[in-house]
UniProtKB/TrEMBL annotation:
<comment type="similarity">
    <text>Belongs to the tRNA pseudouridine synthase TruA family.</text>
</comment>
<dbReference type="GO" id="GO:0003723">
    <property type="term" value="F:RNA binding"/>
</dbReference>
<dbReference type="GO" id="GO:0160147">
    <property type="term" value="F:tRNA pseudouridine(38-40) synthase activity"/>
</dbReference>
<dbReference type="GO" id="GO:0031119">
    <property type="term" value="P:tRNA pseudouridine synthesis"/>
</dbReference>
<feature type="domain" description="Pseudouridine synthase I TruA alpha/beta">
    <location>
        <begin position="143"/>
        <end position="245"/>
    </location>
</feature>
<feature type="active site" description="Nucleophile">
    <location>
        <position position="52"/>
    </location>
</feature>
<dbReference type="InterPro" id="IPR001406">
    <property type="entry name" value="PsdUridine_synth_TruA"/>
</dbReference>
<comment type="function">
    <text>Formation of pseudouridine at positions 38, 39 and 40 in the anticodon stem and loop of transfer RNAs.</text>
</comment>
<keyword id="KW-0819">tRNA processing</keyword>
<dbReference type="InterPro" id="IPR020097">
    <property type="entry name" value="PsdUridine_synth_TruA_a/b_dom"/>
</dbReference>
<dbReference type="InterPro" id="IPR020094">
    <property type="entry name" value="TruA/RsuA/RluB/E/F_N"/>
</dbReference>
<feature type="domain" description="Pseudouridine synthase I TruA alpha/beta">
    <location>
        <begin position="9"/>
        <end position="103"/>
    </location>
</feature>
<protein>
    <recommendedName>
        <fullName>tRNA pseudouridine synthase A</fullName>
        <ecNumber>5.4.99.12</ecNumber>
    </recommendedName>
</protein>
<keyword id="KW-0413">Isomerase</keyword>
<dbReference type="Pfam" id="PF01416">
    <property type="entry name" value="PseudoU_synth_1"/>
</dbReference>
<dbReference type="InterPro" id="IPR020095">
    <property type="entry name" value="PsdUridine_synth_TruA_C"/>
</dbReference>
<comment type="subunit">
    <text>Homodimer.</text>
</comment>
Length: 270
């Protein structure tokens, strides 16, 4: 018997978030039901980060205990055969008892994809955010620099957030344009509830010319959620990658590989 880690991806538009709920229309409930059938016993899981309704995952990580020894490929193929098409195990790896999907994580990376176009697209509906107003990349990149490092992110924290502290460290925040798509990449030690969607809303205000880049720095200092921009839609948000110490030996595909394999629709420059 051992502890197993699984890499999981899912289309969050079909689900009411990750965390188990009484109605059982969540990713966790559906994954655990498939695991219970695969293992012929109830199988609880622990995840790296709980995603909200409509939020997707390219690289969610979960762990589970008390698993029988099987070929790793059998875990992937066998569990996926019991899952709906909107959820898929990408890899499986045996890990030591010291590994914990949440507490062993060094950082988490989210990607937000915004499509900038005059008219909405039904083809990528639910998979990207949409902005039809003029959008300027450079001011958003300037504003993003204010968010790097350790800060009190109270101005970007949901009122329902249960975290003990609003202090987080932003390691990376990059914004690039690929044709009609703006790609936001955010990597931090951890994120507060709705923090990414609140940051995207504020950065888009800057990109639309509604606020100057320095406004982001002012919001950080004010520590008041009421003064910031509205929470942006969940559609374009992806939990892209969770980083762990190398000693655990987990698969670690690059962000570029993940992006190309799952989000090829916005990979071409123009």
């Amino acid at each position: 018997m051992a502890r197993m880690a699984l890499g999981v991806s899912y289309d969050g538009a079909s689900w009411q978030g990750w965390q188990t709920q009484p109605h059982r229309c969540t990713v966790q409930d559906t994954l655990e039901a498939a695991l219970a059938r695969f293992m012929a016993q109830p199988q609880p899981t622990i995840c790296a980060g709980r995603t909200d309704t409509g939020v997707h995952a390219l690289g969610q990580v979960v762990h589970l205990d008390g698993v029988a020894e099987r070929r790793l490929e059998s875990w992937v193929r066998g569990v996926n055969a019991l899952l709906p098409t909107t959820i898929a195990v990408q890899w499986a790896c045996t890990v030591p008892d010291t590994f914990h999907a949440r507490f062993s994580a060094v950082s988490r990376t989210y990607i937000y994809v915004v499509r900038h176009a005059r008219v909405r697209s039904p083809i990528v509906h639910g998979r990207v955010g949409w902005v039809h107003q003029p959008l300027d990349l450079v001011p958003m990149q300037q504003a993003a620099q204010c968010l790097l490092g350790e800060h009190d992110f109270s101005s970007f924290r949901s009122s329902q957030c249960q975290a003990a502290s609003p202090i987080r460290t932003m390691h990376e925040l990059q914004i690039e344009q690929r044709g009609d798509f703006f790609i936001f990449t955010l990597r931090a030690n951890a994120f507060l509830h709705h923090m990414v969607r609140n940051l995207i809303g504020a950065l888009l205000y800057v990109g639309q010319g509604r606020q100057p880049p320095q406004w982001i720095e002012i919001l950080l200092a004010q520590r008041d959620r009421r003064l910031a921009a509205p929470t942006f839609a969940a559609d374009g948000l992806y939990l892209a990658q969770v980083e762990y110490p190398a000693m655990f030996g987990l698969p670690a595909p690059s962000l570029q590989t993940l992006f190309a394999s799952h989000l090829g629709f916005c990979a071409n420059d123009s």
